[in-house]
From TrEMBL:
Source superkingdom: Bacteria
InterPro entries per UniProt: PDZ, PDZ_sf, Pept_S1C_Do, Peptidase_S1_PA, Peptidase_S1C
GO terms for biological process, alphabetical: proteolysis
GO MF terms held by the record: serine-type endopeptidase activity
Signal peptide (residue range): none
SMART domains named among the record's database cross-references: PDZ
The protein, known as: Probable periplasmic serine endoprotease DegP-like
Ranges in a coiled coil: none
Reactions the enzyme catalyzes: Acts on substrates that are at least partially unfolded. The cleavage site P1 residue is normally between a pair of hydrophobic residues, such as Val-|-Val
Length: 472
């Protein structure tokens, strides 16, 4: 027994020695992974974060009034028209909203979201020391939901931008803002994912984070552990607690610089209709997986066509950088300077070619673009769309007065393929909401949660109207 006890004692001593040696190392590694606290970072950054309060005028009572004080008989045909001459609509009323922002310049330039200050009659900025200033809008970009405003102040303490490219998934980040009007609220989390597409527009490229973001955080900074801005907090998922999205700093800085210099944003433009390369097309053109974008059409008198790019070409690179998807090409070209000359690598009939294209300006905000907006890759239902313009309406036999999205392609095997919808059909409504532009479509579909139903109203030709039910 004594020999056994001796062996146990020796084993116990060895185990204790191992613990003394190992656990400090493990403890040190863990302390390097998890910050002891965020107080120093919060203290350093708080002077650069602001609370934004806006006041806007809502005409005729607005949507809320119409919702609560509509016809007492519901939406019965003719009833609304009967009562409308006798209804006294209320006078214009004011509506207040809250948001956040951050200082980028000692002289008073402040970055926030476009939706925070859009249509505002009055914008008030409150600093961390409770000083208040009236702000004016320098410029805004609805496509990326960014805005630049300015206050008349001096010796402010701006925050510095970092590179969102260097913000790795899993790295610590801190959000500072005014959720629900609670100023200088600090929350911490990690970068959960990058490159998220949430259906807000053609330049979706969001950073996903689990740092708590709530209404009022919009426009506030997402900071790395060096106190640098790597994102602008912008959106949340209504049903997803703890999931927030931020505009990457690398995308934001180019937009903000243009707003500061010229009060507007211009983006590069090739003038092509494009689509992702399918597996079959990849085999046909002998391409690597996720390589290239197919040119469905190169429009005459536009940059790509004038440089020599034609329908059937597969764009594989821009300035030597690999292109793997339609979204990839759209973002790359949009971030290049209008008028700059870029080398576009293509594969034509199995041979590599390079064309030098002088970029034009993308007609993002043109309601009557000769091409119309296009959804150049299949959506979740299996559709590709193009907004109806005058030329397209004439080709398809639709009256020029009708607005909507034309189905240009349908993905085989998708919900769309099994629905009976054909190419050339015109989408005009989703769940009784009119759809005239791609932004209407992405916004409306983005509000429909997984498992819910989208009722789509289509028109075929001059007379046939039909409804198709899709489950998202």
């Amino acid at each position: 027994m004594r020999s056994v006890d001796k062996k146990i004692t020796i084993f116990t001593i060895c185990l204790m020695l191992f613990g003394l040696l190992a656990f400090p190392a493990l403890s040190g590694a863990w302390s390097r992974m998890v910050p002891a606290n965020f107080s120093e970072l919060a203290q350093q950054a708080k002077s650069g974060v602001v609370n934004i309060q806006t006041v806007k005028t809502i005409k005729g009572g607005g949507r809320v009034f119409r919702h609560f004080f509509g016809s007492p008989f519901g939406n019965q045909p003719g009833i609304e028209d009967f009562f409308s001459p006798f209804r006294q609509m209320p006078r214009n009323r004011t509506e207040s909203s809250l948001g956040s922002g951050f200082i980028i310049d000692k002289t008073g330039y402040i970055v926030t979201n476009n939706h925070v200050i859009k249509d505002a009659d009055q914008i008030k900025v409150i600093l961390h020391n409770d000083k208040e200033y009236d702000a004016r809008i320098i410029g805004a970009d609805s496509v990326t939901d960014l805005a630049l405003i300015k206050i008349d102040a001096k010796d402010l303490k701006p925050l510095k931008f970092g590179s969102s490219k260097n913000a790795q998934v899993g790295s610590w980040v801190v959000a500072i803002g005014s959720p629900f009007g609670l100023e200088q609220t600090v929350t911490a989390g990690i970068v959960s994912a990058k490159g998220r597409i949430i259906g807000s527009g053609p330049y979706d490229d969001f950073i996903q984070t689990d740092a708590s973001i709530n209404p009022g955080n919009s426009g506030g900074p997402l900071l790395n552990m060096d106190g640098e801005v790597v994102g602008i907090n912008t959106a949340i998922i209504k049903s997803g607690q703890g999931i927030g999205f931020a505009i990457p700093s690398d995308l934001a800085t180019s937009v903000i610089d243009q707003l500061k210099d010229s009060k507007r944003v211009s983006r590069g433009w090739l003038g092509v209709s494009i689509q992702d390369v399918s597996k079959e097309m990849s085999e046909y053109y002998t391409l690597d997986p996720d390589e290239g974008v197919y040119v469905a059409k190169a429009y005459e008198d536009n940059p790509a066509y004038e440089a020599g790019i034609r329908q059937g070409d597969v764009i594989v690179s821009v300035e030597g950088v690999k292109i793997s998807s339609s979204r990839d090409l759209t973002l790359t070209i949009a971030n290049l300077r209008v008028g700059s000359k870029v080398d576009i690598g293509v594969i034509r009939q199995g041979k590599n070619k390079t064309f030098t294209v002088k970029l034009g300006e993308r007609p993002d905000n043109s309601e009557d673009s000769q091409f119309g907006e296009e959804l150049n890759s299949f959506d979740d239902l299996g559709f590709m769309f193009k907004s109806l313009n005058e030329d397209l309406a004439g080709q398809l036999g639709y009256p020029s007065s009708i607005k909507g999205l034309v189905v240009t392609q349908i993905d085989p095997g998708s919900q769309a393929a099994m629905s009976g919808v054909r190419t050339g059909d015109l989408l005009v409504e989703i769940n009784h909401k009119k759809i005239t532009r791609l932004s209407d479509y992405t916004r409306t579909m983005g509000k429909i949660e997984k498992g819910q139903t989208a009722h789509m109203l289509f028109r075929r030709g001059n007379s046939q109207i039909f409804v198709v039910r899709f489950e998202k």
